[in-house]
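[SOLVED] Need 3D model of a two-part complex

Original post:
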Amino acid sequence: MSAVIEVKGLVKKYGELEAVRGIDLTVEQGEVFGFLGPNGAGKTTTISILCTLLRPTAGDARVAGVDVSHDPAEVRRRIGLVFQDPSLDDQLTARENLELHGRIYGVPGALRRERIDELLAVVELADRANSLVKTFSGGMKRRLEIARGVLHHPQILFLDEPTLGLDPQTRKHIWDYLNSLRKREGVTLFMTTHYMDEAEFCDRIAIIDRGTIAALGSPAELKGRIGGDVITLAVADVPAAAREIKERFDIAPLAANGTLRIEVADGASFLPRLVRELSMPISTVSLSRPSLDDVFLKLTGHAIRTEGASEKDMMRNMGRMWRGGRR
Amino acid sequence: MTTAAQRTTTVAAPLSGLGGGFLGAVYIVWWRDLIRYWRDRARVGASLAQPLLYLVIFGTGLASSLGGGFGASAPGGAGVSYTQFIYPGVISMSVLFTAIFGAMSIVWDREFGFMRELLVAPIDRAAIAVGKTLGGATQAMIQGLILLVLAPFVGVTLAPLVIAQVVVLTFVLAFGLSAMGVALASFMRSMQGFQVVMNFLMMPMFFLSGALFPLVGLPGWMTVLTRLNPASYGIDPIRRVLLGSSGFPVERFAISIFDQTLAIPVEAAIVLAFGAVMLLVAVRAFQRRD
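Solution:
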């Protein structure tokens, strides 16, 4: 095992705004590494720096053994990218899209054709190779982009929210393709997501919030940081209930989205006591094993939140409407 | 894992060559634009509607009130009809609009389209700017030249040599405008700026270009604006070649600066130089990294 991504003290400022505030991390070859956090946490900024689309304000980043500031072109040759928004040409066929990519990355003719056929088979688009991409569903487009991303045998495939906007079943499929590609190609996967359930597929996860890494480890390790079980409680007066629980049981509950979350070592025996002793009526209560949502909440003190729509988000929505309307 | 790593190294070697080289990348960007253009024939047809409206309705309407002797040297002498006068102007309008609209698509394409794929590729971004400019120019040129089929209806005869000259001059105009569009698009971060470009640049450029009225005997301020407009120097030679060859007296409408009538090659050189400067601006903007 050797490191394919090494990041030290990475900072990115946009004027006064600090989007990334000192990130350190190492990703090993062959790993599936997840970057988990809400929109606006600095995920896309970090991935953009690693892919040489943005210059870091400070800090070092080596990707596939090359410094992103010194030789961006060489970094680009060694990585593949799948963007948050589709970057296929939908007036071209699936094969033409791959053909263009192969030419741009200088994959020689015979090898290119062989590789295109091979990858179209892996993502199960061989029968649609000569159809225009505009006739594809969201999931098919994403599969094609993934195939394109690995066409030139990159050492690392970066995926920025690869399953955004796809239905759960399609998301599951995308993961199957990614896993089979990882086994075939030995490619390292570096991905961002804000779906907690997807982070479970990763070997290791970095939880990023407000430009810094709040925690880093395997999903199991991170969940182990929660001391046992999680009880979620809905009551009419959340602050009053929080005070009462603190006084009576000496446990500090977390308030989120109008509910209270309580971490306890043995939830099954604590729950009846809580229901019996709490002086106010409880509308709903549930007991669960800790999820990554709970980890995130505990580490950052707030639930995964979505910030206000940026200009880019508005343009993106406009585009969806426009594209939808044309069909 | 080891085998995969080895495979990576063996394939990476030929890649580190040149990635198709600069011209290869220009060609790819250009080729993609043309394929898209060819596949979108419905739009090509629809975009001819506006020039036809100008020519048939606007042209006929004004020709009726201006009379046939428009531009005649003496009352009752031979002149051109207004429809004939604006025919080269309408061809140029088609070039202008196609070139600018085509370039504006970059703004969208960069955030949500294939342009992103190009921008992250290990190619010199200058190649993207050059390829986009040439791709847009080729489309704009074709869009303008399609209107040559109307020549018989306007009473213009097309000799092979005239066609050859018009093709070259149309490409020169298309190149200048496409380069300007790409340069503008490279500074725009959202489509919101598009309306501004449309209202404060494209329309004034079109109106002040000599497409719709001769650039002679205008008030001083307007003369200055028309002479500052690069499109003027692109449209004028097309008119002189297209109508002049059919014996229409259009030399008197030719652009003059300080009473000197500009020769056609000089006009073409001005447009080419303008295009080259704009392309340089676009290349610089594309190569910038935040």
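Edit: Residues 3-222 of chain A form a domain with the Rossmann fold fold (CATH 3.40.50.300).
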